[in-house]
Amino acid sequence: MFKLRGHHLFCLLGYRGMGYSKEYVENMTKLHQTLRKNPKSLVQIIEGPDHLCAMYPNSGVYHCKDHHIYVRDEVILEKLGLKLHETYEWKEIENRVRNFVIPSDIQTICETCNWRSYGVCEEGIQHIIDEKGLWKVN
Ligand code: SF4
Q1: Range of the domain at 68
Q2: What is the tally of structural domains in the chain?
Q3: CA distances (Å), 95 to each of 2, 85, 112, 113, in order?
Q4: What separation in Å is there between the alpha carbon of 126 and the centre of ligand 1?
Q5: Most C-beta atoms within 10 A of its C-beta, which of 62, 112, 116, 122?
Q6: Which of 15, 25, 121, 127 gets mutated to test ligand 1 (max ligand atoms within 8 A of its CB)?
């Protein structure tokens, strides 16, 4: 079972193999590909630093405990109707994205994120809406 915070549910949709460091990318790719290949994988929703934050490099400015990141987590969980500490199959999370999210939500919910301008997160949401699942990342 993977423990994830709210906003990382969206980040996984847009993930194409980019990240903060080699170790961060390896960890995220492993998680991403596990969810892609086995949508029945279990995800527990937690508050604060999670499975992905654990590999955030020491060299960068650590933002994982910033207030606005917690707010982004809350907004995304509320939008998806997911509850803290509950466990869901990944495919259930994809279903909720399909039903409750549109690509342009990224523009407002993730307004302050540096990755937003790449456009991959909006594309990732569209991919889920089109029932194509997560991107394949090599
Ligand atoms: S814009 Fe940033 S916070 Fe939002 S889903 Fe993409 S990577 Fe995650």
Answers
A1: 2-129
A2: 1
A3: 18, 19, 26, 24
A4: 14
A5: 122
A6: 121
